[in-house]
Amino acid sequence: MQEAIDIMDFPDSTAGADAISGRVDLKSVSKAYGEEWERQEVITNLNLEITPGALTVVVGPSGCGKTTLVNLIAGFETPDSGEILLDGRAITGPSKDRMVVFQETALIPWQTAYENVVFGPKLRGELARDALRQKAEGLLAKVGLAEFMHKYPLQLSGGMQRRAELARALINQPQIMIMDEPFRGLDAMSRGLMQEFFLRLFEENQRTNLFVTSEIDEAIFLADRLVVLSNRPAKLRAIIDIHLPRPRRYQMLSSPEAFRYKRQALEILHQEAMRSFRGSQAVYSASGR
């Protein structure tokens, strides 16, 4: 199920009151899993600032701990040591201040797109019925789903579901949006459209965003700051500031500047992959095989 998306034509902006910036600081954060005798360290002594109002993209080797990082910032898990602060306040659990869009759709299948969007604020009783309806309908129009608000998730394409989840997150006016590989699994055309669509929303609202991806081209295209993590246990390996002009178009990825950023990131990731490979070889040799 596909439909045309005019990514340049947004209805009324929500930039004013809805644009809430948040600074996230990770200070000496470590996280491990398993019992003491088989404990596996996933993140170790990670220090990182997520800049307010910026789009910070995280990349790293497969299995390095990117999703664990998402869970810690979202408050779904707690660090074993260190602390995570949002605007100077310790993160101790989940909150509407930090909304997550996951790899797999988390829409409630028996509710329509509209019902999914209003679910959180309605449950908390934050807005009068008419005000909530007006806000939800405005957001659904903003993400191009005005004609589909009464459809159920299974009646929507993958790209439509992703946009419904964006609207569901945005209605909560979070201080930070956390995107955990949200376009993974979409076909190439839908993924490219969603990347441009997401960028238009970001460039309009300038909301603090943390975006996790395994795709270097996607990372370069989206990021203000590119955070490169080491192989597990994850540590901060590099921060690359991306100075491509905004608004961005996908054609920018063929520019010499974008190619230099990509080469720099790939060189670091290759070093980490080789380090992991040598470590695996050492373990294999030590086993006597």
Structural commentary:
This protein has 289 residues and is an alpha/beta fold. The protein contains eight helices and ten strands. It folds into two domains: 15-97 and 177-286, Rossmann fold (3-Layer(aba) Sandwich); 109-173, no CATH class. Helices cover 37% and strands 20% of the residues. The strands form two sheets. Strands 6-7-8-3-9-10 form a six-stranded mixed β-sheet, sandwiched between helices. Strands 2-1-4-5 form a four-stranded antiparallel β-sheet, with helices on one face. β9 and β10 form a beta hairpin. The N and C termini lie far apart (51 Å).
Set down the secondary structure blueprint:
Layout: H1 15-18, E1 24-33, E2 40-50, E3 55-59, H2 66-74, E4 81-86, E5 89-90, E6 98-101, H3 113-124, H4 129-142, H5 158-170, E7 176-180, H6 188-205, E8 208-212, H7 216-222, E9 225-229, E10 236-241, H8 256-286
Parallel strand pairs: 3-8, 3-9, 6-7, 7-8
Antiparallel strand pairs: 1-2, 1-4, 4-5, 9-10
Strand content: 15-25%
Give the uncertain stretches in residue-range form: 1-20
Looking at the structure, the CATH topology of the largest domain is Rossmann fold
Number of domains: 2
